[in-house]
Amino acid sequence: MKIISAILYFLSHHPGWAFPLLILLFLLLWAWTKKWIFGILAFVVPIFNIFLAHMFNAWFLNAYGVKGTAIITKEEQTNSTLNDQYIYDYDVLVKTADGKDVLTGFSTMSAAVYPVRNTILIPNVNDPFLVKYIPGYEKNIVILSDESNFGIARKMMKNQIEVQKAEIQYTASPFNKAFKEEYLQALKTYVTDSDNVSDPNVINRYKAIIRELESGQQ
Q1: Are strands 66-82 and 129-134 parallel, antiparallel or unpaired?
Q2: Helix axes of 2-13 and 15-33: crossing angle, nearest 10 degrees
Q3: Which of 38, 145, 166, 170 could be 30's S-S partner, Cβ–Cβ 3.0 to 4.6 Å?
Q4: Spatial contact of 62 and 142, defined as CB atoms under 8 Å apart
């Protein structure tokens, strides 16, 4: 497993170097086997690697890795951009399950984050987060965003936005049964989501509103 992890680390963190090596690999396979599929892969795989390697790396590490914790110790803006946003380099300290300290890093482009989304979620500097890694090659990590404090806070905020939207609709038209039901369901979804229990004041207030709505007082 650690050999696979090392290969995926190289492919995702060094796509520039990986590009010619992948072309050479598949061209050699094409020359050796005389199978045209390797000739096609020689041009397709290097391009796909640039955009998909970090996603496959995230899936692999989440499926087969063990949990540890990490913290970003340094954030540095580069001169490169992605979608008109600057790419950042990050220095990271990983604390493994057996207490070992491992120094590693990633960039905005190479970071492996699970679950895989279109949005690149990177923790703030000095904000501990959960990771997974393969023992023996601990420098290759995947950020477990939904299990870390920053990811839970983001999800809570997103859930609250849904509640606020439904509340505005219902307040604007309180006799609309569809709006009332949507507001009620948004509140119930929020209070039953285990990620939101860290905010007891909001939970208790939402539960009180649910009781009022179901009793017909609102």
Answers
A1: antiparallel
A2: 110
A3: 38
A4: yes
Give the 3-state secondary structure of residue 4.
Answer: helix
User: Nearest Cα to 154, choosing from 183, 104, 106, 113?
Assistant: 113
Domains, the chain, ordered by start? 2-62 (no CATH), 65-144 (2.40.50), 150-215 (no CATH)
**What are residue 76's phi and psi, to 5 degrees?**
-135, 125
* Residue 133, both tokens: 């890694």
